[in-house]
Amino acid sequence: MIETPRLRLRRLRPSDEGDLIALDSDPEVMRHVGSPAGTRPADETAARVRQRIAEDQAPLGFWLVESRAGVAHGLCALLRMPAGDDIELAYRLARDSWGQGIATEAARALVGHAFGALRLPRLVAVTYPDNLASQRVLEKVGFTQRGFVDYTGVRVVHYVITPEALGVS
């Protein structure tokens, strides 16, 4: 478990299924998620959620982002990029959690975990070009934009962060 002043990031468990299906079924949340972006059929969404819960990808993988009181806000992850050795930071929040600094706080905590406990040499992140809110989150956390890359057939903005950029050695 990773804790911040307001949040807990914890591994997924079966009781999270309903919250995760609701998150991935919201067209506004999924507008900038996936390749191609958007929601999937209900049976596919449920199957993907169950697969995420069942997989043990430690030390990488998915974390539920929740308040200290146990209210689910969304999901964050450290995942292998489809091509190469890079590890990607990914996240998405329920709409009622937008605009509260939760994405920034969760992303910062997971970056700290990646560079601290996991000793990763760098992280990458990608966003759709029109996802300005996510780009602001990445920049607040310390990521630097490095142009555009192809991500599973979609042109996305590419970000990189290293421990040195944060003063971590």
Describe this structure as you would to a colleague.
There is one protein chain. The chain has one domain: Gcn5-related N-acetyltransferase (GNAT) (Aminopeptidase). By secondary structure, it is an alpha+beta fold. The strands form two sheets. A five-stranded antiparallel β-sheet has the order 1-2-3-4-5, sandwiched between helices. A three-stranded antiparallel β-sheet has the order 6-8-7, with helices on one face. It has four helices and eight strands.
DSSP helix count? 4
Q: How big a fraction of the residues is strand?
A: 25-35%
Structural class: alpha+beta
Helical amount: 25-40%
The coarse overall form would be globular
Major sheet summary line:
5 strands, antiparallel
Q: What's the number of domains?
A: 1
Annotated CATH homologous superfamily: Gcn5-related N-acetyltransferase (GNAT)
- Could you tell me the mean pLDDT? 91
Oligomer: single chain
CATH class designation: Alpha Beta
Q: In order across it, which strands form the biggest sheet?
A: 1-2-3-4-5
List the helices and strands and how they pair.
Layout (H helix, E strand, L loop, with lengths): L1 E2 L3 E5 L5 H9 L16 H13 L6 E7 L4 E9 L6 E7 L8 H14 L7 E5 L4 H10 L2 E8 L2 E8 L8
Antiparallel strand pairs: 1-2, 2-3, 3-4, 4-5, 6-8, 7-8
Helix pairs in contact: 1-2, 3-4
In short:
With 169 residues, this protein is of the alpha+beta class.
Which features would summarize this protein structure in a list?
single chain; 169 residues; alpha+beta; Aminopeptidase; globular
